């Protein structure tokens, strides 16, 4: 995938959580991960998906690995969608490795990735606090 999140600062070691992943899935360190089913995580793919965390490690397809850790606490540079975002607004998964402002009336309760720390005109990589502010 492209546009992986980049660590600025891990809080409390990033508080990684282990998830099951499909052996056939390839992952890059920094991929935004979505929760699929029964603690199964996969790379983010579309709007309003439940957020599992940020992939801690590389994984090649069909390498026999079926678990991966995902950071759930830290500050990361993450690509935002083309829409403007004001610092302090909550963001959710918009597409593969991309976030956008949460639409309170339509977004999944668990799609919250974090809080935007920089005001942006959109389509830029900016700091997002993940798992720090609820």
Order of helices and strands: EEEEEEEEEEE
* Main sheet record: 5 strands, mixed, barrel
Shape: globular
Q: Give the assembly state of these chains.
A: single chain
With strands numbered from the N-terminus, the spatial order across the biggest sheet is 7-9-8-10-11
Query: Tally the helices: what do you get?
Result: 0
Beta-strand content estimate: 35-45%
SS class: mainly beta
What gyration radius follows from the Cα positions, in whole Å? 14 Å
Instruction: Kindly state the number of beta strands.
Output: 11
Q: How many independent structural domains?
A: 2
Helix content: under 10%
Mean pLDDT: 92
In the predicted model, the low-confidence regions spanning at least 5 consecutive residues are none
> How far apart lie the N and C ends?
28 Å
Description of the structure:
By secondary structure, this protein is mainly beta. Helix content is 0%, strand content 43%. It has no helices and 11 strands. It has strands at residues 6-10, 17-20, 32-37, 40-43, 51-55, 67-71, 74-80, 90-95, 98-101, 112-116, 125-130. The strands form 2 sheets. The chain has a 5-stranded mixed barrel. The protein has a 5-stranded antiparallel beta sheet with strand order 2-6-5-3-4, with no helix packed on it. It folds into 2 domains: 14-71; 74-130. The mean pLDDT is 92.
């Amino acid at each position: 995938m492209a546009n992986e999140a980049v660590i600025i600062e891990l809080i409390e070691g990033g508080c990684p959580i282990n998830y099951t992943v499909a052996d056939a899935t390839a992952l890059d360190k920094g991929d935004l991960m979505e929760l699929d089913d029964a603690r199964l995580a996969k790379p983010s793919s579309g709007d309003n998906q439940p957020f599992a965390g940020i992939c801690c490690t590389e994984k090649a397809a069909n390498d026999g690995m079926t678990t991966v850790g995902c950071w759930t606490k830290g500050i990361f540079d993450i690509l935002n969608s083309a829409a403007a975002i004001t610092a302090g607004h909550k963001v959710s998964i918009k597409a593969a490795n991309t976030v956008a402002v949460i639409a309170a009336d339509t977004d999944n309760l668990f799609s919250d990735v974090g809080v935007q720390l920089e005001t942006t005109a959109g389509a830029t990589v900016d700091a997002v606090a993940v798992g720090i502010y609820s």
